[in-house]
Amino acid sequence: MRYRLLAALVLAVIALWSAAWFYLAGRAQDRFIAWLASVDAAGLNTRHGALGVSGYPYRLVLAIDGLSINQPGGWAWQSGPLRVVSQPWNADHLVLLFDSPQTVTPAPGAPSVRLDARRARASLVNNGREERLVLDLEDLTLQADGGAPLAAGRLQIFVRHAFDGAPAQETPAETVPEGAGPHLADVAIKAQAVHVPAAKPTKLGEVIDSFGAQAAVYGQLPTLDGAGLSRWSKQGGGMEVSDFRLKWGPLTISGSGPFTLDQHGRPFAAFMAVISGHEAMIDALATTGMIDQPRANIARMMLGTLAKEGGNKPLEVGVNMAEGFLFVGPVPLADLKPLIP
Alpha carbon of 112 to those of 16, 82, 221, 228, 327: distances in Å? Predict the structure, then answer.
């Protein structure tokens, strides 16, 4: 009798959990469709393929047979099949597993960029106070239409958006860019073993050992074209980079400072930086034709003098981008072009 009662209780629990799981599975599809509707209401366009839910009994796995999102007159993103995984008891945390290549077109008429990765996943948390997105890609390849592939061992991107506009950390007023718009998001990026194709070998080599940056972004979300980015900067768009680090062969750079775009869409920034291996950087710029030999010779002389005055320690200099030039200390090192024409 006791065992029959126990068996009945177990069966009742299984039946209740099964009913709850199938209810939550239906809710998962409904939430996804509602999310698409909110994206459409925000002015974007979405399309998706067939939906299906699996993962019983401990997970909810929403399979989406293709998804695309585009901004009218702006950027577009397209994915093949992907999966959205969540726990039945925690709908605030979603894990996205990308099972196929991704294609991004930054603007109409611009070359599309295809992304392939051995492992691609994203974590999205929305707890009602803030949204957090973590994108983690391993052994990835980026290739624009007609361009050479760019490969990396790993790329991680973190984005945090608070609904009340508060930054992740209290930002001193003096570090906020002058005329900055409302706080939009906190962003961090980290990359390792980035293979950069080069027509000519340089002293830097073809592999960026590591790259990382953290920044607070201000202004309204722009469209990813020249007009949109120009409008973003004019309306107070910009960022405060709190930690920038680059290790590329013999070159090491770290620094921080404000960054935005000028009226022509060119970078405009004022960084304080510490640079080690500036000779290799100058040689690489000259070898690849980004600067001519006369300018390279002047840069070697002036930066070499600064290095000697500093006791041959890493250079501590201002790195400024203004009027279409990149200045390292007093040296106009390279020309700057608009980020997106």
Answer: 49, 20, 21, 18, 32
Dist CA 19 CA 11 (whole Å): 12
Does residue 269 sit in helix, strand or coil? strand
What value does the CA radius of gyration of the chain take, rounded to a whole number of Å?
Answer: 25
Q: Are 52 and 69 a contacting pair, CB within 8 Å?
A: no
The two three-digit tokens of residue 281, written as one number: 């950087």
DSSP states of 145-207: TTS--EEEEEEEEEEEEETT---SSPPPGGGSPTT--SEEEEEEEEEEEEE---SS--TT-SE
Per-residue pLDDT of the chain (341 residues; tens, 9 = 90+): 566 777 777 788 778 877 877 888 888 888 889 888 988 888 889 999 999 999 888 899 999 999 999 988 888 999 989 999 988 888 788 899 987 889 998 878 888 999 999 999 999 888 777 789 999 999 999 888 878 888 999 999 999 987 665 555 544 444 555 555 678 889 999 999 999 877 778 889 989 999 999 999 988 766 666 677 777 877 888 899 999 999 999 999 999 999 988 878 889 999 999 999 989 999 998 888 888 888 889 888 888 888 877 666 788 999 999 988 999 888 888 888 887 66
* Alpha helices, DSSP H, located in the chain: 2-41, 226-234, 278-287, 293-309
- C-alpha span between 313 and 317 (Å, rounded): 12
Tokens 């796995």 correspond to 61
Instruction: Write out the two tokens for 341.
Output: 């024409």
Residue 261, strand partner residues: 267
| Lookup: tokens for 12 | 């009742």
Q: Tell me the C-alpha distance between 20 and 16, whole Å.
A: 6
**Pair 129, 149: CB distance under 8 Å:** no
Q: Please give the Cα distance from 319 to 196 (Å, whole number).
A: 23
